[in-house]
Amino acid sequence: xxxxxxxxxxxxxxxxxxxxxxxxxxxxxxxxxxxxxxxxxxxxxxxxxxxxxxxxxxxxxxxxxxxxxxxxxxxxxxxxxxxxxxxxxxxxxxxxxxxxxxxxxxxxxxxxxxxxxxxxxxxxxxxxxxxxxxxxxxxxxxxxxxxxxxxxxxxxxxxxxxxxxxxxxxxxxxxxxxxxxxxxxxxxxxxxxxxxxxxxxxxxxxxxxxxxxxxxxxxxxxxxxxxxx
Length: 229
Ligand SMILES: [Zn+2]
What we know:
7 helices, Aminopeptidase, N-formylglutamate amidohydrolase
């Protein structure tokens, strides 16, 4: 445990203090690959990583069940969530192990309740994977867009600056039965980010662009949380 923590701190330092000024994507991905704390819910488990200021979430990291039908995992979303969380000292949560339900579909799912307690009042960035429909990044503002204010702008700006094709509310506005919607309906600030498969593929050129764009965006969101009000 101690050794893992030491390595974790060393990797976080590598990401943040890269001499070139460009964070090390390999170190960032390695941060995301390290285990969190496994917890068990009534319909499946999750992993958490402690922090504050922002919460990064990946509810579809493993296979899940929506209305009785099996749905494929969005593998890599959990690694990105934990990489971003650890690089900026934020909290993270991702599904882990067999699931009998879908946190991003079932109302009152324990995953969302646990997420809400991780870093109370911190804004939430909920990560997903989509197929390529012409954009690499879709930022979904949810049913109460005011509660995505201050979150979607850095995400869109950094994605566009990285050269990624970026859309707002298309194809996924996150308005209905999403984690983002559940949080916003409870008054919590939240935003949904969908990235194409390529953005999670370590062999694809879009992957480092997406990782670094999201890192910069989450750094800006975290800085706004920690700064003067
Ligand atoms: Zn998803």
